[in-house]
Write a structure and sequence with these properties.
This protein is mainly β and about 160 residues long. Helices cover about 0% and strands about 60% of the residues. A six-stranded antiparallel beta barrel has the order 6-7-10-11-9-8.
């Protein structure tokens, strides 16, 4: 099945002009903007409820925001009238990559205002040869800090030089 490249739709995708402007329109920009960064998204299907300010992306969802890449089967989005994404939740198995850290979990919730990612359900983070498993992981995109709860793992330690 061919992927729908949402970043090629008009930025007003979620606005009232959705139905009159999107028909056959050329690429104009990203799906939305979060904190001044373009949000590019790909999925097999998009359902939008303009009145409620919600959208659901289904099938091979891939979202890129700056250095953050998130892949999962389903993403639910809440947005305002601007349209600015305020909240997003990915479910059914999530893979997120930020710089050289790869995270896997059952779900991810994104609080746009706080620039936080909350991973939950079988969380595993890997960086190089190191890995940790946790019940939950909070990633602060602004400070690049990661906070984990209920942690086990393996962190490689280099032997001292002789």
């Amino acid at each position: 099945m061919r992927l729908l490249r949402l970043s090629r739709l008009l930025p007003v995708l979620f606005g009232a002009a959705l139905f009159s402007l999107v028909r056959g329109a050329p690429a104009q920009g990203p799906l939305g903007v979060i904190g001044g960064e373009a949000l590019d998204v790909m999925a097999e299907k998009l359902d939008v409820d303009v009145d409620r300010g919600t959208a659901t992306l289904n099938g091979k969802v891939r979202a890129k925001l700056g250095e953050l890449l998130v892949e999962c089967p389903t993403v639910e989005i809440r947005y305002d009238n601007a349209p600015n994404v305020r909240y997003a939740k990915g479910t059914k198995g999530v893979r997120a990559a930020f710089r050289d850290i790869v995270a896997k979990a059952e779900t991810v919730e994104v609080d746009v205002a706080k620039r936080h990612l909350l991973l939950s359900g079988g969380v595993q983070l890997t960086r190089g040869r190191g890995w940790v498993k946790a019940d939950r992981a909070l990633i602060d995109l602004a400070t690049h800090k990661v906070s984990l709860q209920e942690v086990t793992g393996s962190i490689p330690v280099e032997p001292p030089a002789r």
